[in-house]
Give the backbone structure.
Amino acid sequence: MERIDLHTHSTFSDGSCTPTEILQAAGELGLTAVAITDHDNVGGIGEAMRAGEQMGIEVISGVEFGSGYRGRSIHMLGYLFDPEDELLNETIDWVIKEREKRNRKIAEKMRQDGIQVSEEQLREEHGTTSIGRPHFAEVLVKQNRANSIRDAFQKYLNPGEVYYFPRTFLPLDRTAEVIRQAGGVPVLAHPFQYRFSDQERREWMEYCRLIGVEGLECRYSGYGELQTRYLDTMAERLGFCRTGGSDFHGAYKPEIALGTGRGSLEVPREFLDDLKNRWEEIKK
Ligand code: AMP
Ligand code: FE
Ligand code: FE
Ligand code: ZN
């Protein structure tokens, strides 16, 4: 079976590998298609496409937006859009400004506790505008305030902890609209990560179908057979196409491997064909 990975993060957000390094690793694994889906950033797509071309691996455009729904933050993936699209890039600029405001609060609070860090310094060090909590987590690990990124989140950065500050999200329907008008396909990321009851999850999926979301991430690191079967059924019932990916972040999530996730992930090539078919359909 040909395998692919449609959910990965690079140094253009909170991943530790460059797009080229991800494509090299994908080549070693024998993956035949990859999408880089950085948080609120499309800067890595060009590099990924060039590396993919050299290696004979198909690269499609990808992005992952945080967006708001009923007081929750929901992640929405976008695929096959035009990375140069004006409204998409304006939207990213807005999201990055909201990140920046939140990041300044985190940095200030950390400095009050004697940890030298600033938004500007993180941007410079990482060479990206999409700075997030994982980068602050890394600072906490380096300064021996936490043992790991995960530990730093648990002690300091999760909601309710001292360095947590909320940020404003674009609403879910607006996010889907922006992706669609850029010629892309909106897809719901990791549907089991949001602490919904079964009833709430169902309502959410139905709502998403109504606002123009076209796909459901039906394969994801750590999702077992029952969860996978449930997602396949919901995709069929509600008319979503299926996608899948590892959510690889390199050293920021060391337990997750490219392509295979927590070990048993398999995303079949057919999912990409279905995604492209859907793309053709909605473009009509
Ligand atoms: P932000 O968007 O800046 O609020 O950061 C959220 C991102 O942090 C998520 O998209 C994940 O990539 C990462 N993240 C959240 N929780 C954890 C955790 N416990 N361990 C490692 N990474 C996490
Ligand atoms: Fe992330
Ligand atoms: Fe996500
Ligand atoms: Zn992700």
